[in-house]
Amino acid sequence: MSPVLSGVLQMLALVAALALAHLPLGTWMARVYSSRTHWRVEKWIYKGIGADPDTAMRWPAYLRGVLAFSLAGVLFLYLLQRLQGILPGSLGFVSIDPDQAFNTAASFVSNTNWQSYYGEQAMGHVVQTAGLAVQNFVSAAVGIAVAVALVRGFAGSRTGELGNFWADLVRGVVRVLVPLAAVGAVVLVACGVVQNFSGIHEVGQFLGAPQQWNGGAVASQEAIKELGTNGGGYFNANSAHPFENPTPFTNLFEIFLILLIPVSLTRTFGVMTGSVRQGYAILGAMATIWLSFTALMMWTEFAHHGPALQAAGGAMEGKELRFGIGGSSLFAVSTTLTSTGAVDSFHSSFTGLGGGITMLGMMLGEIAPGGVGSGLYGMLIMAVVAVFIAGLMVGRTPEYLGKKIGSREIKYAACYILITPALVLTLTAAAVVLPTPGDSTTNSGAHGFSEILYAYTSASNNNGSAFAGLNADTQWFNTTLGLAMLLGRFLPMVFVLALAGSLAEQRPVPVTAGTLRTEKPLFTGLLVGAVLIIAGLTYFPALALGPLAEGLAS
Amino acid sequence: MKISATHTARLLGAGLRALLVLTVVTGIVYPLVITGVAQGLFPGKANGSRIEADGEVVGSSLVGQAYDLPLGDGRETPEPDLRWFQGRPQNGLGTNSVNTRYDLILSGATNRSADNAELVRWVEEAKAAVVRDNSVPGRPVRPSDVPPDAVTSSGSGLDPHISPEYAGLQVRRVAERNGLPVARVQELVDAHTTPRTLGFIGEPRVNVLELNIALRELRQT
Fold it and tell me: What is the pTM for the complete model shown?
């Protein structure tokens, strides 16, 4: 079997597994977020919080819950890192510097998991499990909660109510993320991912002196890192490290975990709005983009243009042999079309065009299928824009799912779309113009520019992967990237929830012969077109200076 | 709507309490339960898949090692010990810069781009070395025979595998240096070649540490 065929078969196996798994999970999540009963453990948690889970919130109250919880997360995680030096169970590791601690706290709370530190030498057991892994769960649950609130906005009628944030948060953790992560973690351990608290210890080698290993609760973190589209690795090499991703099967399984919840949420959306075909139309747009990107990535990586890759005879620099080019291409596309940012191969050493594909995936807004929650609400915002464009073409007031898209709704959607490009392009321009940030790059020329563009694209879109040649542990990058992550996560959420509140106040209008049929393939095509045109027009000049220049030169 | 300071404080308090409760669930109970299950069901794998030879731990079957000669006087980079099968280059590995009382290996890639001049040089030098080291009298290795994994660093720097092609390239050299018949060494490589999982997942590969352990056993018999 040729490596190309193996890559294609792995892609098809993933599609089949997701097609099967997303139906029960999507339906289950719809039941979870519509349920009126509380599990006993949830009642204990609500008592601990001091919140009534049955109070329906309007959008400002829901948003205040999101922001208060996330602010508490940033402060707690910052303090935990600053105090690491005096905490027991930290392997004797010292406290993290203020700028890096801020960056990491912002990074994990915003579901980005950008890492300017080396996991194996900087973070002890306490920070990893009680700090970073906790945010892997709760930041994902916050993302799902906001997406569900938007779905309720479409499904609701004249109440303005979006549900209860505390109930959505706790249910997401207790009923969805913890059970799935537990199963995933045990599967990973069975394949060789480590799970212990033995700390740093010496292990003999075949020749020469023993080597020092860093043990840890890796499998438990790895499972939620993929499942919650977080991406922050226990080790510096992330999912390329054999202790995080030991076999070709775990590689495919981890990609499956990354895509599982975002894909299933389209089903949840369909069930909650009363038409699963609406969910399929959204999923169709996501799948079209994911499949095209995967095909393009495999094409450019197998063709291996670029002087170093030509000299080597294949694009294996930065890739693990057990995954090969097919498995690595699948992972790279899936991690950048979601907000994951975990890597099983290093994007900086991909072909010029391959690196460009990873960047473009993030620039689309990570909506195919996107981060947990953020993928669905991002794609629904694009659907609102697509409906609006179609409405302009035929001269009718646009509607989506029975709700009118008026000037207020389209302004919220437009603001949502403008935030990340504004952050990415402004901060990249500032970093390039200022004298010192450029010193952080490893490569020169177009690729050096790409390192900086990639960093701000990744941070503002809450991805977290990197062209890792960039030395981001400087005060400039720690601070600006930290701000980009926080603004790129929470400002869009403001507009999503405002839009949800505005939709929830409306009474649904009846479907007529003139209504745009948003459950049809035609709409899926329109949606893909809107996504590509909006991102393409926004980022084309920046891409031309970086990956396109590099890719076309080789 | 007017939001008072007390209201904000109460809300922040709720956020903090929610975080602490969920930290207990996901940051303490969850990892401890998983660790218990992992150590109970798969203790060998949960502790790093160590393998032993002659009663001593010689590493993990998952983590690649270097098979080098001891560092000679005045040299900065060690020479490969050509009696043993060699793994992939490890140019991306680092040494720890904080908490330096430990001597950790930092996993990582070179992150050099496809048009990076230094990477081109590394690849060309590695290819020349593979050709030089593995050519035996009457059997020269051609540069076009060298597979890509032999001249590139992996993503982790700890790749435990090489391709069957790169292992096959080393058979004659290893046989000659160890005074073994070529056919016996080739059999060893064939026995340690793992095919794709289920026939299509991943790439065919050879675990270098396991192969070298078997080679050492063969030498001793």
Answer: 0.97
